[in-house]
């Protein structure tokens, strides 16, 4: 790929200087190695559009949701995980595009909320899974959101469980540093309504944020970009004051066009937000959750399961009603 070759040539010429300053496993910038973001050809929205060409809602869903670059989530449903991530980033790489992946398989996932409960069978099983996830990406460019919600709610967890979770995340970040040098990893930091900035800064640091490229905000939630930007800046202020470093952050804008009404599980009246892009108040604005995918058996998604595509919810989200 032309962008990738140009980046590699520049890196080769700069190598002696880079080594003299400070080698970094995440020195490469995957956004400069690619030409735009990857549109998942097998997203739930894409599949629905393909199967419902005669539906009156299809043109709007196709134009406004199905063709916007959106993350693909990987978990126990993904089969042999190294094969799955390798195939996905390989397809993106062949088109010179940057893929967005979500690793969502931590042991005791959604332990306190329960709507998306599951994950690996044990901490050791997770360590194996994330090592294979990372190995599948290898040296190809990618963006990874690491374990949404994992640091957001500790309310029902013992200190031993918290320590165990933070250890799993630290181990995961070490795998990315070891195996995926052209991946930007964002450790998830919940949203502005979950934990105060000082608390989240401490949790991020204790989970190994120093090893990550940055942190992610608002995954599968509805807070405005402005609210998330203010929160992310406040978290960075706490990181700087307490630990002497900061990190860039990204915001999930897929469903934040009308902001939050205080509900997180399939609330009505929400709207799609700014499309995936560089900048916009954060390092990147990303569609991490597919608009129209259910949060679980609740709200306007009553009777659905988490991740199920709801065309009527998607259609209404386009127009904000």
Automatic annotation (TrEMBL):
<keyword id="KW-0624">Polysaccharide degradation</keyword>
<keyword id="KW-0378">Hydrolase</keyword>
<dbReference type="InterPro" id="IPR001524">
    <property type="entry name" value="Glyco_hydro_6_CS"/>
</dbReference>
<feature type="signal peptide">
    <location>
        <begin position="1"/>
        <end position="27"/>
    </location>
</feature>
<keyword id="KW-1015">Disulfide bond</keyword>
<keyword id="KW-0119">Carbohydrate metabolism</keyword>
<dbReference type="InterPro" id="IPR036434">
    <property type="entry name" value="Beta_cellobiohydrolase_sf"/>
</dbReference>
<feature type="active site" description="Proton donor">
    <location>
        <position position="149"/>
    </location>
</feature>
<dbReference type="InterPro" id="IPR016288">
    <property type="entry name" value="Beta_cellobiohydrolase"/>
</dbReference>
<dbReference type="GO" id="GO:0016787">
    <property type="term" value="F:hydrolase activity"/>
</dbReference>
<protein>
    <recommendedName>
        <fullName>Glucanase</fullName>
        <ecNumber>3.2.1.-</ecNumber>
    </recommendedName>
</protein>
<comment type="similarity">
    <text>Belongs to the glycosyl hydrolase family 6.</text>
</comment>
<dbReference type="Pfam" id="PF01341">
    <property type="entry name" value="Glyco_hydro_6"/>
</dbReference>
<keyword id="KW-0326">Glycosidase</keyword>
<keyword id="KW-0136">Cellulose degradation</keyword>
<keyword id="KW-0732">Signal</keyword>
